[in-house]
Structures are given as structure tokens and as C-alpha cells.
Design brief:
The protein has 1219 residues and is mainly beta. It folds into 3 domains: 436 residues, YVTN repeat-like/Quinoprotein amine dehydrogenase (Methylamine Dehydrogenase, Chain H); 455 residues, 7 Propeller (Methylamine Dehydrogenase, Chain H), CATH 2.130.10; 84 residues, no CATH class. It is built from 14 helices and 89 strands. A 5-stranded mixed beta sheet has the order 1-4-43-42-41. The chain starts with a strand and ends in a 6-residue tail after the last strand.
Length: 1219
Amino acid sequence: MNWSGCPGSALVVLVGFCQTAAAASWSQGTGFRSLEVYPGTGGKPGFTLMTPTATGVWFTNLLQGDAYLTNAVAHNGSGVAIGDVDGDGWQDIYLCSLQGPNRLYRNLGNWRFEEMNIGDAACADQFSTGAAFADVDGDGDLDLLVNGIAAGTRLFLNDGKGRFTEVKNSGLSRTASATSLALADIDGDGDLDLYCTHYIDVMHLLDPTTRFAIMKRDGRWTVLKVNDEPTTLPKWKDRFEALPDGRVREFPEVHGLYRNDGHGHFTPIQFEPGVFLNEEGKPIPPYRDWGLAVMFRDLNGDGAPDLYVCNDNVSPDRIWINTGIGTFRAIDSWAFRHTSRSSMGVDFADIDRDGHDDIVVADMLAREHEKRMTQLVRDLPDRQESERMETRPQYNRNTLFFGRADGSYSEAALMAGVAATDWTWCPIFIDVDLDGYEDLLVTNGFEFDMMDQDAQDALRDPRHRFTRDQLKRPLQFHPRWPTTNAAFRNRRDGTFEPMGHEWGFDQLGVSHGMALGDLDNDGDLDLVVNNLNAAASLYRNDAPAARIAVRLKGLAPNTGGIGARLRLVGNSFTQSQEMICGGRYLSSDQAMRVFAAAPGPGKAVRLEVKWRNGDQSIITNVQPNRIYEVDQAGSLKRENPVRSNGSTLQRFNEQQNEPFFSDASSLLGHVHVEDGFDDWARQPLLPRRLSRLGPGVSWYDVDGDGWEDLIVTAGRGGNLAVFRNDGGQSFRKLDGVPPAPADQGAALGWPDGKGNRRVLVAVSNYELPPEQESEISVYSPTNWEAPQHWAAGKASIGPMAVADIDGDGDLDLFVGGRFRPLASEPFESLGLVSGATFTDLDGDGRPDLALAVEWGPVRIFRNDNGRFEEVTAQWGLAGRTGWWTSITTGDFDGDGRLDLALGNWGRNTIYELYRNVGPAEAGIPNPQLRVFYGDWNGDGMVGLIEAWQSRGKWLPVRDRAWLARGLPELPSQFPTHQAFGKATVQEILGARYERAKILDATELESGVFLNRGSHFDWVPLPREAQLAPVFSINVGDFDGDGIEDLFLSQNFFGTASDLSRDDNGRGLWLRGNGRGTFTAVDASVSGVKVYGEQRGAALADFNQDGRVDLAVSQNNGSTKLYLNQRAKPGLRVVLIGPAGNPEGVGAQMRVLYADGHRGPCRAVQAGSGYWSQDGAAQVLGCAESPVALWIRWPGGKEQTVPVDDNVKNLRVKFDDGRK
């Protein structure tokens, strides 16, 4: 902790500043004025904690006596507001108190403050929670709003000199338990309206002595009495609800939404019809939510303030889109896929500088492993609900939402390294080091560890006798949990690294509200933190880098320019912020925003201000180290106001081009249905379901009419779906296919060498009795009702691939096995094979075998005249073990050699909690993961423990409660969860540790292995590809530019984790650059939006227009079909091979151009990606008109075929040299 105990330490900068300000004063410009500031030199980024002795701020937010042990609501703390209340140019500080008067400190300059006499504005007779300074009457000074428990919201008008008078008839509630507050002009009338989150005055359900009398009426439980008092009394009326299982739920309060008349009087409108609308635009009543924080922000770019409301406990967060007239519509249900569960605070910033606002929401997941093993008292999401794609589950961890171009969000706190920051209250994005990227600060702490499972167990232990007085004070039986505040540096790649100690922001204790303000007028933002039972913290920002500070002088009544959008354009990127009022957890900032500025000469910098009413101010030639005050009176007036429709996609409706792909799924009308198999009843310690791995999808011309048909496999009891392609215009589902006896995996088209077409379908025995084998079902297009069955052994199978491995002209079959039923034990030979493909990697004309293996490396087997030799280590792939899911091949760097593309589990799962922090230039370090497995109980059941490595020791990923399902002795071995939290895997397993088998995973990213001839180089796919598990990975030229692209199917919901759902994928197009790397294409451009658990994916030009189309299957969801409508048409090539291989499977081809250069090499595969098969007809994108097509047929025979001008379809027959 860096304490500054001497006021003189601040004078080095500030005295010089004051003298210069007096001499130079403000410089006037057109529509603005500016003032030079003088940052400190020679320092380093971070903060200095100023001592109360130095500042004169001795304020302490006290919570003592009986309330300390009984009032859980009060432990939500209090906040702080910063603003210049007396107009002297220095920011003053208002601190809220739970017990005793609130305090207002006048800023005297030079980091000295004095307490002001504020009379009734001290609110001494209430538990004060939140506060904000805002000009609510439009007279140019800052008025004061103060919230309190059972005290509502109080309004004090400022006379301009820091003297406050309470407005008794303000229209604001004086009985609600108000927490945070935010102000914005919601209806466009120019004044600031108000949203207050409300909580509850007393949480009776936390008091074990609370008694309920319930009875059943008309088949429903009803609460009749509370503590022997009838629920008809006002204090109990509508407060409790009896649930169907007889438990009682306590209701919080309705939040307050107030319309300002511009003169300091507010009208509550939350109950007015039509103020709140559901996703379909229908009026709904206001919710009763456990509200903790709220912030206004223009989410959809229409200029109107939208709302993010953070709710505690079981209340979901509410995200409201402003319709433009001050009413709010719930955001589209697909925009957020999951949220935090106990949301405390929220903030917004464009942290990756892509032009879209990102959002952080704070929750309370512990940073330390031991705490995560003991803090099990929390609301858990319903597993069945979480596995339904249309739901929005909540999880007890921080969430970080990255904005997308279409107004939706991907959540990546786990990848970013900020999912766990302890019991966090207030998050703030602030560019601490002024590098142009906002960093993250969070306040932390709770007096008692309310989530401690050991304390909960002790309270429920019948052997422990507690008095009634003790039970009414249950907090005292929980351990104390002071934690350090935290800071995280933005690494500019979507991830953060801890910097709390380095930046001097790691105070230990309980900190609640936090606000930003320039307390020393040096142009950066300092901090004030309101701590519980400890002195408030004032932090001096020591950033030495150049800055540009912006304040606004808005037109009355919005004199602070609240809601204005700021953009600093220039240097190497554009920075953007929004002027807010309130919105912090219980707190409110000074209305000033600060940007990083590159010092010295460079590109001209421009400041753009888009005011709330649509006016615009543009300041050119903006200079570093200045405060700019922009005057709306000099702005450009808008001419054509735009009315919002309340849609999150408002700003994206004016796209110049339609998306590449249009949704044609209605041509199929197919839905995959999964049965209700319980994986964990069979094997209690599985980390994720093994029964939800399908379906596969394949394109194959089953009837030989020249049009590729679509095949989708089924779950147990479902029917294999075969859709006949009717000339590329429609599909007709074939009837008569019998129900599947078990889950089906891959489906492949297969010629039998006798002129007949067959469809091979893998059928897994995983859900069957252990004595039953897996099988290959062989369907004939002339008799779908009676397939043949080939036995496939005891392994549970999924992937398949075919190729002519021995050069005899027919296609041979590889079937991948993943695990043994009941045991899920990896095979000693190949391991858990998830994906397979045949491809000629060494250019000798023979198909080699490449396998994606879970808990193993990508394995390569070189074909030596029909015999396979493993070259995994020789070719440099052995050391990169992962949870590989899929594999395919393509020429990604255009060198003519086939590279490999691999799907993996990604970098945004719960396992990211266990990675170490590395330097930014090294990328995101992989966690070191291991699984220990064996038949530990001698019952034939293989148990497993997932583990992560810390300081050389292996620690369990799962807690005692979970592992005891398979290791029932754990509660006696470790009597407390705290004891288990300290245990290593070796201590857990004891003597079994030495006998345990192990597998390691060192690589979780999806990526490509670039073929260098003698070895392969690993290149991870871009960040967007790591946001969710990848299943299918497919190669095609989706835009027709002559460069190979990738498509990824994504997501997996059926995990054992109660901390996340891996749902951030929508199906991802990665556009290749021809050099082996890729760029993600947003769904607003691609048109592909698949929100469920995508599995197989297959490419084909099903309407033969020279563009690559796409089919994507979903587990327990609809099969999606996308028609490519924007790509530049390519050269469509159909190979005609010999009778045993009529589609030329295994052939390679490249287009040739007039200047001698060649396009990328494309291989014809049957079985690749994930349990899928692309169409045999190849669409080759062309950078220019080709003059020839080079082909290497299976076996190595090469052929060059001329391509005439304007030829778009080419049929090439294999020439075996016979007449």
C-alpha cells in the first residue's frame, strides 16, 4: 500500500498547476474552452492512498451494535458522490453513512478538504446507501439525491454555493429501500429523469427464527401468518409467497422510475401502462427485483439512454432498450446468453477498441482455490433449464460482455481473467496507465462469509444448540472475509492481468461504493472509496502519461451534457466514452471523462461530441494535457431526428449490403430431439455429458440424380433424416426410416464398388446396456426401412472417414471410438478419438490418417502403401495435448501443401480459472490440466478427478460435495470443506494416487497446423474462435475471393459446472488471408446465427449457383440451412472417378492462373470436421479467371484440364489410360 502522509508530496505538481492556471486561465475556442494541465513526471501509473491526516477526511461508514449482527441489508454498504457543489472549480466529496450523518467535504485544493455544514442533507436519521450529484432543475449547479433503507430517495436543491434545501414534495418515494441511482434524459425533453434500484428493508428469510403458517387453498399453498401475525397487515401484505414445494419466497420491492418535470419535481411512472414492454413489445407490469445497481447507456446507438439493471439473488438482470419516448422494451432474448446471478455493479467501455461498447457486471466468485472449495452456499442454476437454448441462466461470477456489431454480446470474463474477483461491489473501467485502453478496478469485501458451507452446516447441525437470540444473529457464526480491492490492466487483446499491488489499489477490508473525480485538477481521474468500519479511501492518480480531459456545458436543463457520446479520433485508434450521472454502485462520478493522448507531434486528433438531443460538436486539433470544456451552445443542430423503435439493432438496419448467407432452414423444418438420458446417474464424476455429442450432418447424392441430398443423424428413438434435394429449390424428407436404437454419430455416403450407393451411420452403444455393441447401420436408398448392421465392437463410436487407403480403387472405412460404456476409459491405443479425416499430407498420392483426440495430441498416421506408421512426434505434434474435437484439412497459406484445422474446447470455460498469468507478449497462457482416473472403489466404475497445477501440486477442480458422489469417503476423510480446500489430489486419493492413470491437456485453443513439409507449425485461431467449444470445423471459400476460409460450429451446454454455460458461439465464419491466419466475420455480415448446441456442419453448393452453402445441426434443436447469396461465384468442379470411388474421394485440385500462380489446394474428403461430410462437388473460389485446373487423383496420377473463359461448371472424368 502506497500511503502519502505528507501534503507536500502532492504540491510538486499542484502548485505549478495553480500558478499556471492563474496566469494563463482558460483558452477560448469555437464552441469550447481549454486549460493546460501538468501531469507529474517521472512517476509510474497507479494510485497513492492519501492519509486522513493529509486530507482531513476522517469519515468512517460505521455499522455497529445489534444492526451489525442482524441487518444483512445494511451490509450492502454505502456509496460516495463527487462534484463541485460550490462552483469554485474543485471537486467536493459526499460520503454516505449507515449509522450517523452523511458528510460533505469541500475541496480546498492541494489535497486538503474540510467538512461542510449541510444540515438536513446529512440525512442523520437513516441508513443511507447511495447518492448522486445532478442538476435536476436545470439551474447550472449540482443538486443532491440520497437513498436509504426504508427511507426512499431524498432530493436536496443546491443554491449554487453548496447550501442544500430539501424538497419535501419531490414526488420521490420516502419509504422504499433504495440502493443505487442513475439519471438520464429518457424521454428527450431535456431534463434528467431518474431510475432508483430498490431492495428490501429487512430480509426475514435470513432470520432462522422467522415463523410461517401456510395452508393449501384450491391446490396452492398460501402464507397465512408471519411470526403469528396475519399477512393482511400492511407490513406483511404481498411480501411472501408459498412455492409449490412448501418453501416460502420473500419478495423485494418494485424499483422506482421517475419522470422529471425540469423543476425538481418527479413523477413515478413505473406503474404506468406501457412504460415497460416485453421482448415482443407488449406492456408488462414492473418487476419486483432485488435491485443493487443501475446504469444508463445508449446500447443501440439511437441516442436514447438504455438501461442495465443489476439484481441480486434470484432476480435476473434486466436490460431495457429505450423506445425513444421514455418507455423501455426488454432486450432481444438472444442478445445476452447468460448473466451474473448476484449482480452488484455494472460499467461500460469499449475495452477492445472495436467501436462497440462492452459491459462488466460484478458478482462474488472467490479468487482463491480454497475459498471456492468452501463457498458453496449460493443459488445454483437449474441444470435442465440451463440446457435449453432459449433460456438465459445466471451464474455466481463476474460477467464481461463484448459488444458485437449487430447489438448482441458474447460473454468472456473467464477468457479475460476477470471472472473471479471475490465479493465484488463496484466495477469501474478507467484507463489507469493512459495507453488508450480502459483497465478495470473493483471494490471488494463482506464482513461475514455468508457463502461458507462449514458455517451453514454448523448452524443446521442438530447437535449444536443455539438460543433464540443467537439464531436471530446468525451473521456472527460465519467467518470474517475481508478481501483486497483489485486492479486489472487491459492487455489490449480482450484479456486482463492483475495489477492491484503494482498500482497501489489492494487495500484489505470491506469496500463498497467508489467514484471518480479529478480532485487535484491535473486532468486525470482520482478515486474515492467508501469503506465499511474503516476510514474512506482517497486515491491520487499518479499517471504520468499525456491525457485529454473532457467536460461538457450542456444547454439547460441538461447542463452537464449527461448522455452525450464522446469520441476521440486520431493517433492509431478511436476512443469513445459516454457522460453519465450516477450509475456507479451506490455512487456517482464527476461529470468528466478522460482519454489517453499520444504526446508530441503526430496525426491530428479530433474530439466529437454527440449530444443527447442529436446536436454535434467537433473540436479539431485537440492537444494533449488539456481539459476541454465543450459548450453545446456552439454545436451543430441536427436536422432530421431519428425515432427509435426500441430495437437493439436500430443502428445496424442501414447496412449497405445484405448478409452473405440467408436462412433457408424452413426448407427443411427439421428438429433433432435428444432423449432424457442421465449421464451422471451412470458415471457421477463426469465433467460433461457424453450423451449429447450428436447429431452429424452430411451432403451426399443418395439417389445419383446429380443433386446433393442432406442427411442428419438422430438421437436414440429418433429417425435418421434424409432430405432429397429437388433441383436446388426445395427438399423432400424421405419416409420409412426406422427409429434409431441408440444415438447416431457420423453419416457418410459410401459406394459399394458395385454401382450401388449406400449411407453408413455410426450407432453408439453408450446409452445401451453394457453387453450391447456399437454398430454401423448401412442404408440403401432403395430400401430405407431395412438397414444392414455391421458390428463395431464395445467402444462407443462417433466419427468416421473413408478413403482408398490401399490403392485398390474402392473406399475403405475408419471408425473412431471414444470411450467404453460404464467406464469411459480411454483406449490404450488411440485414445478418445473425436474426429477423423483422411488426407494426403506428404504429397505422395496416398491418404494419410489424421485424428483429433481428446486428452491427447493430434495424431498423424502416414500411409506407406496401405500400412500406417505414426509420425505424430516426428512431425512435431506430440507435445500439444488437448481436448481436440474435430479435424479437417485445407491449404491455408496457398503453398500447395495441405494443412490441418483443429477444433478444441476454447479459452472461455471454467478451466480458465486455473491458468497462470503470463506476459502479454506471450499470449494467454494455457492452464495446466490433468485428469486422474481409475477404478478406485473396485466396483468396475472408473472414477476421475480433474486437476490443475499450482506451485507444483495438483489440486482438484471440483469441490468435496461433487467428488463425494464418486468418492463417498471424502466427508469423513475431510470433515470440513475448509480442510478439503487445502487438500491436494495426492492427499485425496491416498494410496490410490500411485495407481491412478493420468492424462494431460496443455492446449485448449482451436487452431491450424501449417504444413511445412517436414513438420507442422501451430497457429491458434483468433480470439473469437476461442469463445466457445468448437465442434465441426469446415474449409470452404465463402466469399469467392480465392482464399480458403473456415466455418466453426460451437457451444456445449451439458457440463457439470454451475459457474458457466459454454454458449457464446453462433457459428463462426473465419475469413482467411492466404497466409495461414484468419479474421472473424461478424454475424451481421455472415448472416449465420445459430444459438444452440451446434454439432455437425457440412458444406455444399446445393442449388449449384457456384457459391458454398452451409448446413449446421444442433443437439436438441433445429437443423439450420444457410444459402450463400453474396459470394463471388466460383468454379464448380465435379469429379467422376472409377466405380469404387465415383466422387474421386482423396483427389486434390488447384486452379491455375495465366501468370503461373496457383490457387490453394483443395481435397475431396468423405468424413471430416465433426461427424460430417461435405458435398463431393467442389466450389473453388477464384481471385481471377483461371486458365486450367490441376488435379492429383487418388494414387498420385496428375491431370491438368483447361478452363475456358466464363466456364463456371467443370466435370472431369478420371482417365485410367484405358481405351
